[in-house]
Amino acid sequence: MASVAAWLPAASLLLLLLLLPGVPGKSLQNLGAAQPVCTQAVYNWCSSWEAANTCEVTKRCSARWRNTNSRPVSVEVYYETLCPGCREFVVMDLFPVWVLVGDSVLNVTLVPFGNAKESYENGTWQFDCQHGELECKLNTVQACLLDIYKNDFSAAFPVINCMLSSSDIENSLEPCLKVYSPKTSVDEVMKCANGPQGNKLMHQNAQKTLNLSPPHKYTPWVLLEKKLLEDLDQLLKYVCQTYQGPLPAVCERNSFVFTE
Ligand SMILES: *[C@@H]1O[C@H](CO)[C@@H](O)[C@H](O)[C@H]1NC(C)=O
Ligand SMILES: *[C@@H]1O[C@H](CO)[C@@H](O)[C@H](O)[C@H]1NC(C)=O
Description:
Elements: H1 2-19, H2 49-54, H3 58-66, E1 73-79, H4 84-101, E2 106-112, E3 117-121, E4 124-128, H5 133-148, H6 153-165, H7 173-180, H8 186-193, H9 196-210, E5 221-224, E6 227-228, H10 235-242, H11 249-252, H12 256-259
Parallel strand pairs: 1-2
Antiparallel strand pairs: 1-5, 3-4, 5-6
Helix pairs in contact: 4-6, 5-6, 5-8, 5-9, 6-7
The structure holds 2-acetamido-2-deoxy-beta-D-glucopyranose (2 copies).
Subunit structure: Dimer; disulfide-linked.
EC number: 1.8.-.-
Subcellular location: Secreted; Lysosome
């Protein structure tokens, strides 16, 4: 009882502060148009000098811009949308590392198909997915997103990561597009996913996956510079050790680069 009594005044003070108009934070209307507002998604802050300047990160980005002469480390990910291990790897390891080191250090290739099977029937490719129909549908949706943004992976990856991290992955496309790619419509993506283009893209992914040598044994099957990456939670370490250009700050701050 004593601890609850001690806690109550603090809680009511907090409540009071939240309810007081305009105190303690600034209200949105008062921010005004005095300086350009950083409206880009965080992943795109280093995409141009203007964006970096507006978002006040030119210093941070300049390290990245110096690194563009070395070839980025390639990471290919063979996955399927409903496998928990795949979702965990993308959301907990791959996406954060990609955000930390950037496109100039890490070249990510996503291939949604995984352990599915394909057959040719009645003029189209039919797919049989490990986690059922829904997985086939979501794999195709992600293949379509990767195709729609084939020249701009940094637009596709946040949407895909958002879907894979969602508690309701089945209905995640629309809210994820709304937040990370508002110019793309659900209709555009679904037209691809439900039509011949989606079918063709999934067939290509099937071919890429089934032609792997050595063949994949499980998902996610992750190749770093064409070699199997087994310690999936060590991705950052291997990327830092493999990259030939000047190391990004996040590698230098981690002593593993120098201890092996
Ligand atoms: C990234 O990887 C893809 C697929 O392996 C390759 O075609 C592409 O050339 C690579 N990009 C760079 C910049 O190395
Ligand atoms: C292919 O067509 C046949 C005959 O119309 C039909 O019985 C069969 O279910 C179709 N297969 C698929 C996978 O749609």
